[in-house]
Amino acid sequence: MSEQYNEENSVAAGPVKLTGKWTIGLACVVIIPSLMIYALAGEKVGKEVARWKNPEIYEQLDTYMIQYTSVIEIIEAWNNVESLENFKDNRVMLIRSGIDDAIARYSTLPIDKLGKGNEAVRDLNLAKLHMIRYDFTPNKEDFYESRKRVGSALAIVSDSSLLNDKEIEQFKKRPIIDELEWVKLALYSLHVFNGHGTYKDDLMKIKNKMGGCEYFRHTMLRHIKMNKALGCSE
Predict the structure, then answer these.
(1) Other CB atoms within 10 Å distance of the CB of residue 53
(2) Residue at 1 is within a domain
(3) pTM of the predicted model, to two decimals?
(4) Is 128 among the domain residues?
């Protein structure tokens, strides 16, 4: 294993075509998120000497990677569906049957040895998971937990004193702040779709900053609820 584990940025085949400034930020909808592991600064993860010297770090790392796989399966499945009401779609059933366990396990994993960068990435992915569950079970707990996780991740990545040099370098290459903006876009659009107006102004600001309906039509965003809330379905 290399010093950091990175899923390559990859575009799912389903709902959208990605172009432009916000391409990398569309991760919550169509890009498999990166997992950055910085277990040790300056030592290669996987070297036997490093593993021997730091067993607690590698125990956390190994357990984290196992749980991360199930998280990615759910996020990737949501990337490729237009609606979670299509019960004939196996991806929909995977999401509905697996998301509760994924959230419960992923949110309670100890990662205190893996660095603040990984804490930010976990908060980002938990924000996505709670947003996905809010998509089909619109309860306020998931909505506010997703918002809280976005805020937690943003607080970490906005404070360079909390990050090591490699984390800062990776976040420059893949701006996590843009990804967090997309989580907010998805979350607020679902909130508006469910009849709430509290964050509609915030949604419209994000929409306009990204380029308005012309941009979303160009990227072929097909998530039904999001398109309706954004007013871009026609």
Answers:
(1) 12
(2) no
(3) 0.81
(4) yes
How many domains is the chain built from? 1
Which 3 state secondary structure label does DSSP give 172? Answer: helix
| Full pLDDT tens readout for the chain, 234 residues | 333 333 333 222 233 333 344 433 333 333 333 334 443 333 444 556 667 777 888 888 888 888 888 898 999 899 888 999 999 999 999 999 999 999 999 999 998 888 898 899 899 999 999 999 999 998 999 999 999 999 999 999 999 999 888 888 888 877 888 889 999 999 999 999 999 999 999 999 999 999 999 988 887 788 899 999 999 876
Cβ contact 80:12 at 8 Å: yes
Say if 19 falls within a structural domain.
no
Which burial class, exposed, middle or buried, applies to 218 when counting CB atoms under 10 A from its CB (0-12, 13-18, 19+)? middle
Residue 50: C-alpha distances to residues 43, 57, 79 (Å): 7, 9, 37
DSSP string, 221-234: ---HHHHHHHT---
Rounded to whole angstroms, the maximal C-alpha distance in the chain is 59
Strands (E), 61-211: none
- Alpha carbon distance 57, 115 (integer Å): 10
